[in-house]
Design brief:
This protein is mainly β. It is built from two helices and 14 strands; from the N terminus they run αββββββββββββββα. Helix content is about 15%, strand content about 55%.
Length: about 260
């Protein structure tokens, strides 16, 4: 019986210790964001974004830590306008979302980060939309004009705990629209994922390019959709769960002694 008791206690303590160490981190960034217009006719090139669809950043954090529930958003005054939001400072979660710089000068940027610690279970997400509203902005592009949007994407996701932890980050750009029977959609995106029983790391550096062509002799409308997102989830066994697990193994060990 003593051998089974020792085995039960050792397994319980081992599993409790495994579940206790859990954390996840995710970061996503678009840098060198640039908007360029190219004339394919003799007229002047221009693009106008509707003022109703401003940039938008959002942060969310939920945890078993008492009193921790964060859900906020801040909108910019126009598409691609600078805006920033951070989670309230906390020892178990952190998140940040920001759009900054001037994309017409090739200096636009969007970055988000999310982390969930190993003290309490938590789910954290940060998102930055280049255009809010319904997460896209309508624009009007002048006749005989090509619009090209480029950016550098850097994504990072890491977990250090058990198989229930996971982290992900994404970056995406999309230009689409239609005129009569002519429709077009240009999409570029990148994704990284991390998770698994022994921790995981995924990193990706890439270049994103999308374009929209107006070959008509009049202005046409289109839609811009783009941004970055980071999500981190940590799963930590609560103290009560750990004691229940220990009690279960003890009961199993005692039961093995009975005929």
């Amino acid at each position: 019986m003593h051998r089974h008791l020792r085995t039960g206690v050792a397994l319980a303590l081992c599993l409790c210790g495994t579940f206790a160490h859990a954390d996840a981190t995710a970061d996503a960034r678009l840098s060198d964001l640039r908007i360029q217009l190219f004339a394919i006719g003799t007229g002047a090139s221009s693009v106008v974004f509707t003022s109703a669809d401003g940039s938008l950043v959002q942060t969310q954090a939920f945890s078993t830590m008492p009193g921790l529930a964060v859900d906020g958003s801040v909108a910019g005054i126009a598409a691609l306008a600078p805006v920033k939001l951070d989670c309230p400072s906390n020892s178990n979660v952190a998140c940040h979302a920001q759009i900054a710089g001037d994309p017409w000068a090739g200096l636009g940027a969007a970055d988000v980060s999310a982390s969930a610690g190993d003290a309490f279970s938590a789910q954290v997400e940060a998102t930055a939309f280049l255009a809010g509203g319904t997460n896209y902005a309508t624009f009007e592009l002048s006749a005989d004009t090509v619009m090209v949007i480029t950016a550098v994407s850097d994504l990072y996701a890491q977990t250090r705990g058990d198989g229930l932890d996971h982290a992900s980050s994404t970056a995406y750009l999309n230009l689409s629209g239609s005129e009569g029977d002519d429709s077009q959609s240009s999409v570029a995106n990148a994704l990284v994922l991390a998770g698994g029983p022994f921790g995981d790391l995924d990193v990706r550096h890439s270049f994103l390019t999308v374009s929209f062509v107006n070959a008509f002799s009049h202005a046409v409308e289109g839609s811009l959709f783009g941004g970055v997102d980071a999500t981190a989830v940590s799963s930590v066994a609560e103290p009560a769960s750990a004691w229940l697990l220990l009690a279960g193994f003890l009961a199993f060990a005692v039961g093995r002694r009975r005929p």
